[in-house]
Amino acid sequence: MAAIRFFTGESLPLEMHKVRIVQRLDLPPIERRLEAIAEAGSNTFLLKNQDIFIDMLTDSGVNAMSDQQLAAMMKADDSYAGSETFTRLEQKCQELFKKRYFVPAHQGRACENLLSQILVKPGSVVPMNYHFTTTKAHIIINGGSVEEIPIDEALNLDSTHPFKGNMDIDKLRAVIADKGAASIAFVRMEAGTNLIGGQPFSLENIQEVRKVCDEHGLLLMLDASLLADNLYFNKVREEACRDMSIRQITEAISDACHIIYFSARKLGCARGGGMCFDDEKLFLQIRELVPLYEGFSTYGGMSVREMEAITVGLDETMDENMINQAPIFIEYMVQELQRYGIPVVTPPGGLGCHVDAMRFIDHVPQNQYPAGALGAALFIAGGIRGMERGTLSEQRDANGVEPMANMELLRLALPRRVFTASQVKYVVDRLAWLYENRRLVEGLRFVDEPKNLRFFFGKLEPVSQWQQELARQFKKDFGDSL
Ligand code: F0G
Q1: If you measure from the C-alpha of residue 226 to the centroid of ligand 1, how many angstroms do you get, rounded to a whole number?
Q2: Lower Cβ count inside 10 Å, N or C end of the chain?
Q3: In the CATH hierarchy, which top-level class contains the domain 67-319?
Q4: CA pseudo-torsion sign 344, 345, 347, 351
Q5: Nearest CA to ligand 1 atom 18
Q6: Cα-flanking dihedrals φ and ψ of residue 322, to 5°?
């Protein structure tokens, strides 16, 4: 894809697939968008699909599947125990990750549940490059705590560092010295680090982390949910990987880790999850838990059809022309937004484009949830749904004090192979309009705040009539256009 140059000098990302099944989309008029966001309590999780034009909430479980995946689904072998389908998935994981055991689970957080139950004890510490919401929740529920030790550059939104997902090796040594190796349940590296903007780690970094783990007899665990993007960035940004195939990079990363788990809602473009490792004792422990929480150990809560699709999807992930699609579209989107001066996380990562709400609407105080407010405003402006990744996604502490997030990001995910370049251009256009009118956007306040994971079901209201004002301005500028 990247190799194709336009004669006219145009610089557009180019799809290396053709669309053979389509789903109709409607863009509701601005009046309805205004109503819909009010009904959803300004929370994009609570919007209904029928009101949404471009859904950039997530890439989880909504990536487009290939014809080969759909074809494989038709030959799924449905049996409660010992299905051929499971064997095919198991063998594919063994082939790619070179680990002896594969244990299925219904999605990524289900792997986190089982692994944490076995490995995390009260008082355990888990050093990691950065947390993911469900990962942290499972570690905490089992009595452990999380030590985030990314490199300093990780939290610099405006950076050129190619591997902001790297772990700081000195900080890792310091945590081990401080807490003692015995209290460390495992060290966790997350590929395509989600919450800092889909940022990768380098092969070199994970190999160094492994060396330190070996010095202290520690387990290294990889969350490979966003591995596809990470692999692409290893290939194009890391000198040592330039002459390696995607398969070889996968093998080298896997070789550095003791345990790999993934959400197949992301990796493999289907719906499910699984864990790979060599340790027989761990295998026997986990296998005992699988029927309790997931289903029998040859399906782990997944439908056999999805398992077939994952097997093919994992294989397709080894194709550079497949995994480069999302990062190239994201890079294009980031560059286009920068042309309008819109603050975005750089360098462009995987998963999606991340808009820096703190700078976009710098007049909105952080305790009025700028990223949430920007998400509501973008829905009004264009029927576009993003996800708040800021203070709303944090939890109050035991004393009711609300911690302010490190970053206020509006995540606009690019599910793989779903949107066309013109749809991405439309999103850029509406963001540009919003940026022009950013003074109209004000904050939000809670009217209904759940205790746990409040961003999912919490309801908020605008602190003034700003949403109506924004809609009025839209009517003025766009007239009868949707
Ligand atoms: N790890 C990472 C890095 C993830 O991004 C996710 C999910 C999970 C684990 C959990 O996997 O959803 O299959 O249970 N991320 C989704 C997202 C929810 O929208 O970013 P899951």
Answers
A1: 9
A2: C
A3: alpha beta
A4: negative
A5: 60
A6: -90, -50
The CATH code that applies to domain 4-59+322-478 is: 3.90.1150.10
Cα pseudo-dihedral 123, 129, 130, 131, rounded to 10: -40
Q: Please, are residues 198 and 229 in contact by the beta-carbon 8 Å criterion? A: yes
Going by their DSSP bridges, the two strands 459-462 and 444-448 should be labelled as: antiparallel
Least confident of 190-204, 392-406, 420-434: 392-406
Give the residue, out of 106, 266, 267, 409, with the most ligand 1 atoms within 8 A of its beta carbon, to mutate for a pocket test: 266
Longest CA–CA span in the chain (Å) reads: 67
CA distance 408 to 370: 7
Domain ranges for the chain, please list them: 4-59+322-478, 67-319
pLDDT at 164 > cutoff 80: yes
Alpha-carbon Rg for the chain, nearest whole angstrom, is 22
Which residue minimizes the CA distance to atom 4 of ligand 1? 225
Mutate to test the pocket of ligand 1, among 134, 188, 456 (most ligand atoms within 8 A of CB): 134
Between CA 291 and CA 80 the distance in angstroms is 11
Q: Tell me if 199 CB under 6 Å of ligand 1.
A: no
Q: CB under 8 Å to 10, separation ≥6 — which residues?
A: none
Q: Is 298 annotated in the active site?
A: no
Which atom of ligand 1 lies at the shortest distance from residue 192's CA? 3
Q: Cα(244) to centroid of ligand 1, in Å?
A: 28
Q: Residues 411-462: pLDDT tens digits? A: 999 999 999 999 999 999 999 999 999 999 999 999 999 988 899 999 999 9
Ligand 1 atom closest to residue 59's alpha carbon, by position in its atom list: 19
The residue whose CA is least distant from atom 8 of ligand 1 is 108
The residue to which tokens 């198991």 are assigned: 90
Per-residue pLDDT, 481 = 86
- Mean pLDDT confidence for 107-124: 98
Q: Is the CB of 194 under 6 A from ligand 1?
A: yes
Relative to the CA of 111, which ligand 1 atom is closest?
A: 14
Nearest CA-CA partner of 433 in 382, 387, 482 = 382
Kindly state the tokens that stand for 329. 């579209």
Strand partners, 137: none
Gap from CA of 437 to ligand 1 centroid (Å):
33
Query: Residues with Cβ < 8 Å from 250, sequence gap 6 or more?
Result: 96, 97, 227, 231, 318
Percent of the chain with pLDDT strictly greater than 90: 94
Ligand 1: centre distance to CA 250 (Å) = 20
Q: Which of 332, 233, 235 is nearest to 13 (CA)?
A: 332
Residue 160 sits at φ, ψ, to 5 deg, of -115, 10
Is 305 tagged catalytic? no
pLDDT digits (tens, 9 = 90+) for 119-157: 999 999 999 999 998 999 999 999 999 999 999 999 999
